[in-house]
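Hypothesis: this fold can be encoded by more than one sequence.
Test: take the structure tokens below, design a sequence, compare later.
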């Protein structure tokens, strides 16, 4: 029987911590929202990330929605958002009736290009407009040019939201992604570095973190006023994390360090295993960062005779899952018509397609692949995957 290897799948602790926390919740009948697991999961995340406050929510997407509301994003407001990402980064902008402006990446971080961000500020300033928020992503666990982006946002006095859904544990000069901006979001979806079977967390780093956390807790539990009957003065959401999900997440926190080590090992293993193949470039790890290496991603030179789809298909035949890099949001039909700001003219042209696509994120999409990065992969599995890939170069 052929073995199935997934890109990244849930990996419970060897010790069974998750079961213990869930079992205790059953014993106490603390099954629904709130309880010790939720509180301790939040505390654990605060301890790891250094955020001022954390609020456990039902998903990373709901955390992004709450971040936008906390910043005050509303109808017709402009939000600058990294283009190369999962749609969940930008969907909450639309939920609030706001207008996304997509920003291109650069080739050395695969994340938001600070020059393109600057360009966007200048362009919108000229027409007398200022965004209500900026959303940067730490894609695949790799840190964005976060210091430069923080500086630009501070200069324009616009709050920064970090989508750290994929980058829990990634640091820049020892500081955690998700703790640089006013807000950060984390996802505990099943394929992320640790999971709560589905869930997310909002990180709050502002001066008024305590008040903001209280407000998000209020919105995410149906905006109930503190009176005996159901009284509402605002629209609420049912976004809070359950005590069962939090029990799983709380157990997973204990093995986060171990999972990060394994992900980094996988990245290094592929680097070594595929190093002699011409035309393969690994997603760069910038100086000063320590990445959680959530997924190992590669970029093929445009001139490379092997194409991403060749690799994906060859692996698929062997029951191994891999996939293209996220399709940039400015190229998604659902976001067609929104503005997109690139800095391609000033970039050194990395290959012919840069100009054809007119965006770096487009090139990454066309020529990139996420390799299987499941923490349950053995060396034998990794050797096997490398072997299948190498055959294509023969
Ligand atoms: C997974 C993910 C999200 C959404 O998180 P969910 O928990 O699935 O809602 C948002 N942004 C990025 C970059 C993600 O990878």
């Amino acid at each position: 029987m052929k073995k199935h290897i997934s890109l990244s799948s849930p990996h419970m602790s060897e010790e069974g911590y998750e079961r213990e926390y869930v079992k205790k919740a059953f014993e106490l009948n603390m099954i629904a929202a709130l309880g010790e697991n939720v509180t301790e999961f939040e505390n654990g995340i605060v301890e790891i990330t250094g955020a001022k406050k954390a609020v456990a929510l039902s998903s990373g997407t709901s955390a992004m929605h709450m971040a936008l509301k906390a910043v005050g994003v509303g109808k017709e407001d402009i939000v600058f958002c990294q283009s190369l990402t999962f749609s969940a980064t930008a969907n909450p902008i639309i939920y609030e009736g706001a207008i996304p402006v997509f920003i291109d990446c650069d080739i050395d971080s695969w994340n938001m290009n600070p020059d393109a961000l600057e360009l966007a500020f200048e362009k919108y300033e000229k027409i007398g407009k200022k965004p209500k928020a900026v959303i940067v992503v730490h894609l695949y666990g790799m840190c964005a040019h976060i210091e430069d982006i923080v500086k630009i946002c501070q200069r324009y006095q616009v709050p920064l939201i970090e989508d750290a859904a994929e980058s829990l544990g990634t640091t820049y000069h020892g500081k955690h992604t998700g703790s640089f901006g006013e807000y950060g979001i984390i996802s505990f979806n099943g394929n992320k570095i640790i999971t709560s079977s589905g869930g997310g967390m909002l990180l709050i780093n502002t001066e008024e973190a305590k008040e903001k956390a209280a407000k998000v807790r209020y919105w995410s539990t149906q905006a109930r006023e503190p009176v005996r009957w159901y009284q509402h003065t605002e629209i609420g959401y049912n976004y809070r994390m359950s005590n069962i999900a939090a029990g799983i997440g709380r157990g997973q926190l204990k093995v986060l360090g171990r999972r990060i080590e394994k992900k980094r090992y996988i990245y290094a293993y592929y680097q070594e295993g595929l190093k002699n193949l011409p035309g393969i470039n690994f997603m760069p790890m910038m100086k000063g960062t320590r990445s959680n290496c959530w997924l190992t991603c590669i970029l093929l030179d445009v001139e490379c005779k092997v194409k991403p789809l060749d690799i994906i298909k060859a692996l698929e035949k062997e029951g191994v899952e891999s996939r293209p890099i996220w399709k940039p949001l400015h190229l998604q039909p659902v976001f067609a018509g929104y503005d997109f700001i690139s800095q391609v003219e000033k970039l050194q042209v990395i290959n012919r397609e840069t100009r054809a696509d007119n965006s770096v994120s487009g090139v990454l999409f066309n020529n990139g692949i996420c390799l299987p990065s499941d923490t349950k992969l053995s060396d034998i599995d990794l050797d096997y995957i490398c072997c299948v890939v190498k055959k294509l170069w023969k």
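The mean pLDDT is 95. The chain is about 35% helix and 15% strand.
Hypothesis status: open.
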